[in-house]
Amino acid sequence: MQKNQNDRASNHSCANDQQGFSLIEVVIAIAILAIGMLAAATMQIHAVRNTTSGNIFTEANMLAKATMEELKNTQDMDDLIVGDRLGITADGQPGGIYNVRWDVELVGNNARRIILTVDWNRQGGAQGISIESITRGGGV
User: Fold this and answer.
1) CA atoms of 129 and 111, how far apart (whole Å)
2) What's the chain look like in SS3?
3) Per-residue confidence at 97, pLDDT binned at 50, 70, 90?
4) For the segment 17-76, what is each residue's pLDDT rounded down to a tens digit?
5) What is the pLDDT of residue 127?
6) Using CA of residue 33, residue 35, residue 36, residue 41, what is the dihedral sign?
7) CB of 113 within 8 A of CB of 132?
8) Contact 121, 99 (CB under 8 A)
9) What span, in angstroms and rounded, lies between the C-alpha atoms of 114 and 105?
10) What is the pTM of this model?
11) Residue 3 contacts by C-beta under 8 Å, 6 or more apart in sequence?
């Protein structure tokens, strides 16, 4: 009987050693999980920022092309002069972040070179694109 009680005490002692995780194991697991979640959140922030930046460049490019086509379709070349549109949206409406400026140079007798720039400020930095074309007016 004495041996039987010792076996039970021995089994009971082993069972207490295997009851669960220690506090340090839980803290380490939470720290590893937090680092992983922080890395995923950082990647998501960068992805959103890059997507927004790409969208702004695309809108600026579309605005530049639309404005260039409008200028090239000017019927009377004498009406084609230096100009700008400040603070417009991608649709050309007031109240946006884009500034469109163009310069016109005489090329030969009947042609003009149009140099068009679209610029904007985003997150403290100025950015912009520039395109140019030679036209005779009337869409040519």
Assistant:
1) 23
2) CHHHHHHHHHHHHHHHHCCCCCHHHHHHHHHHHHHHHHHHHHHHHHHHHHHHHHHHHHHHHHHHHHHHHHHHCCCCHHHCCCEEEEEECCCCCECCCEEEEEEEEEECCCEEEEEEEEEEEECCEEEEEEEEEEECCCCC
3) very high
4) 567 789 999 999 999 999 999 999 999 999 988 888 889 999 999 999 999 999 988 887
5) 93
6) positive
7) yes
8) no
9) 7
10) 0.69
11) none
Q: CA end-to-end span of the chain, whole Å?
A: 111
In contact, 101 and 41? CB cutoff 8 Å? no
Contact indicator for 99, 120 with CB cutoff of 8 Å: yes
Give residues with Cβ within 8 angstroms of 119, minimum separation 6.
98, 99, 101, 126, 127, 128, 129
Handedness of CA 90, 96, 97, 103 (dihedral sign): positive
How confident is the prediction for the chain on average, in pLDDT? 86
Q: What is residue 18's predicted lDDT score, i.e. its pLDDT?
A: 65
- Facing residues of 117 across strands? 101, 130
Token output for 4: 């039987």
